[in-house]
Amino acid sequence: MKLNYLHISDKAVSTLQLFKAMEGNVIALKILKNEQLKEHSTKSPGLLVCIDGNVIFENENHKKEILLSGEYIIIEANVKHWINAKMDSNLLLIK
C-alpha cells in the first residue's frame, strides 16, 4: 500500500490516523504544494518523517529545517510550530 493513496481528497492539509498503539499513534499527513499546516503545539514530543516531497518545518524558537524525502525532525512538546509545503508532500507523524 502507498501512503499517497491514503488521502483521497484534495484538501490543502489532510490527516489520517494510520496506526494506534497502546501508547501512541502514527498519523499520515499530506500537505499540498504552497499550503501550510497552521501554527499549533502538542503536549507530547513527536517524530516527523518526510516520506516524499519538500517541506519547511519552523517553530517559535526560530528553528527552521527543510525536510526532503527520507529526512526527519523531532518535534518538541509545548513548542508552537508549523509546516509549509514547497511541493505536494507526504509525511508520517509518530507520537
List the helices and strands and how they pair.
Elements: E1 13-21, E2 24-31, E3 36-40, E4 46-59, E5 64-68, E6 72-75, E7 81-94
Antiparallel strand pairs: 1-2, 2-7, 3-7, 4-5, 4-6, 4-7
Organism: Flavobacterium caseinilyticum
InterPro entries: RmlC-like_jellyroll (IPR014710), RmlC_Cupin_sf (IPR011051)
Protein name: Cupin domain-containing protein
Describe this structure in words.
- It comes from Flavobacterium caseinilyticum.
- This is Cupin domain-containing protein.
- With 95 residues, the protein is mostly beta strands.
- The protein has a single domain (3-94), classed as Sandwich (Jelly Rolls), CATH 2.60.120.
- 0% of the residues lie in helices and 62% in strands.
- It has strands at 13-21, 24-31, 36-40, 46-59, 64-68, 72-75, 81-94.
- Strands 1, 2, 3, 4, 5, 6 and 7 form a seven-stranded antiparallel beta sheet that branches.
- β1 and β2 form a beta hairpin.
- The chain is globular and about 35 Å long.
- The two termini are 22 Å apart.
